[in-house]
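seq as requested:
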Amino acid sequence: MIKKILIIIILTTLISCQNKEKTLIPVKNKKIGGDFILTDHHGNSFQLSKYRGKVILLFFGYTYCPTECPTTLEKIKSAYNILGQDANKVQTIFITVDPKRDRKDVISSYLEYYKVGAIGLTGSIEELKRVAKLFYVVQKKKISSGDKYTLEHSTFTYIIDRNGIVRYLFRFHGAAKELASAIKKILKDN
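struct tokens:
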């Protein structure tokens, strides 16, 4: 466990130091990502590998997130607008880091607002931890008062190619046009 935490810290530090200005980071480590099964916001089983053939924009978040998650969804929406018809070749996936508050109906309402056809995923705490581990996601609960809390969490959007390989990490502060450009490159390459 300590070894995995150290790997996450080293990976995050290296990415931060080497790519201070980059918002789109090519992924060379093929150990990031992988197939998984969770439950979608309609209550159906979801398996990532069944979406091969589409470019996947996958990110971890929660519906009570004050800034990062809504901003990410707005950028994805803008990128879809830039892509035009090519947006049909992309699937956005939102994985909750807060299954306690993010019930299926809450996720469904939240995602519907952004109108990008996103699939919201949830599961047991153990299932979500396994998936977060595949993507080296870090999260920490911050208690504000009583039972109110926020979650600090990794804010990358994982751009996965049509073969299921994580090709890029898109940083939260990046622009929608950069995201659209990366998607176009993947669509052109494979």
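The longest helix spans residues 2-18.
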